[in-house]
């Protein structure tokens, strides 16, 4: 057991008390990608991104019936713990982790906070944003599934004042619906987001607008710009976060042409990506009242 919190928050229930929904965010935990101690400079920059994009987006959800857990390394400097706890008030619960962050870490934290028959878990990175109806849309997909991943395929990217649409069936904004049994829930961290189809059924869902926003910046580990450039107003109204766009006609024209060429080159290098695009384009369209 490597969860250090004494008091825990009980997750609210949805669907008439049948399920609890958790949003899960790693901050500065130790993992395969971040095994060393982060510097104060890295923490301050990551806090800035968190406060500009992730925090306001999740604080402004159309459904408040979820519990947001933010996982923090227990060896974090005192100034950082103070800042994260200040941000947490009324918004999320910091979960302090001793040692390496694993799927079992999340499983223990979720199990301690609900006794609902079903559990929904959704992952969101600390430097990204989600649309105002992101949580509500995921919850509308709940149908008492024993074990099913839910993937909202329509998303966008934001880099240097530019917006890019990106349909993606293996995106990191994944959710898992599972029936609670005698063991702790497996949670969405049971497998890497890009290979969950090897772990269980995945339901790809199309939506009328982008549901998630990857923020591309110098500190990204894996992200790259792969979407098609669009004017900022195509996405801005769906996300409550600090977006500032550079949408001059010349810049839009040049980037749109370059983006189309980049996408074609990606398909030429890896033809399997055509199948990926096909799945995203023809995923089931969600119908909501």
Fold topology:
Blueprint: E1 13-14, E2 19-26, H1 40-59, E3 67-73, H2 78-88, E4 93-97, H3 103-111, E5 118-123, E6 129-130, H4 134-139, E7 147-152, E8 154-159, E9 162-167, E10 175-179, E11 202-206, E12 212-215, E13 228-230, H5 233-236, H6 249-269, H7 272-281, E14 284-285
Parallel strand pairs: 2-3, 2-5, 3-4, 7-11, 8-12, 11-14
Antiparallel strand pairs: 1-2, 5-10, 6-12, 7-10, 8-9, 9-13
Explained architecture:
- The chain has helices at residues 40-59, 78-88, 103-111, 134-139, 233-236, 249-269, 272-281, and strands at residues 13-14, 19-26, 67-73, 93-97, 118-123, 129-130, 147-152, 154-159, 162-167, 175-179, 202-206, 212-215, 228-230, 284-285.
- By secondary structure, it is α/β, with parallel strands linked by helices.
- The strands form 2 sheets. Strands 1, 2, 3, 4, 5, 7, 10, 11 and 14 form a 9-stranded mixed β-sheet that branches. Strands 6-12-8-9-13 form a 5-stranded mixed β-sheet.
- Strand 8 and strand 9 (162-167) form a beta hairpin.
- The longest helix is centred in the C-terminal third of the chain and has 21 residues, at 249-269.
- It is globular and about 55 Å long.
